[in-house]
């Protein structure tokens, strides 16, 4: 049995606080060729996930908020926001599923936020994500400005 309990979430939150990228993963699937990829993704505010989509091969992706708050955002091919949801267990907004071929990102808006993620497999780092050309790459200058632009557009504030 795989158990997701307070002890595991505490370790995940601590790992993400200490990580350079402000996030940490805990993988549950046994191999990269599993048909269902399952993992915890612990994040801190300020981490940046470049908008991307999953196509060729097409994959769905599901985000389930266990702790904290996340914004899951979808974009059109030109980078305009088309939909979003604030995942927050306290408000009973628990999960979102992103369809294949849909540009999306996740923004952590509260410290120690942890999501359970599910994605169609298999996982191959070469073709897993098709990154948006209209958004900065992780580690490039402009990531903070891009995040702030989205937060402003959605009228969201980061909790620190």
How is the topology of this model organized?
Elements: H1 6-18, E1 23-27, E2 36-43, E3 52-53, E4 61-67, E5 70-75, E6 81-87, E7 95-98, E8 103-108, E9 113-120, E10 130-131, H2 143-153
The class by helix and strand makeup works out as: alpha+beta
Q: What number is the mean pLDDT? A: 96
The assembly state of the depicted protein chains is single chain
Quick one: CATH class? Mainly Beta
**Weakly predicted, low-confidence segments:** none
CATH homologous superfamily (4th level) name: Jelly Rolls
Structural notes for this entry:
This protein has 160 residues and is of the alpha+beta class. The chain has a single domain, classed as Jelly Rolls, CATH 2.60.120. 15% of the residues lie in helices and 34% in strands. The chain has 2 helices and 10 strands. It has helices at 6-18, 143-153; strands spanning 23-27, 36-43, 52-53, 61-67, 70-75, 81-87, 95-98, 103-108, 113-120, 130-131. A 5-stranded antiparallel β-sheet has the order 1-2-9-4-7, with helices on one face. The protein has a 3-stranded antiparallel β-sheet with strand order 6-5-8, with no helix packed on it. The termini are far apart. The mean pLDDT is 96.
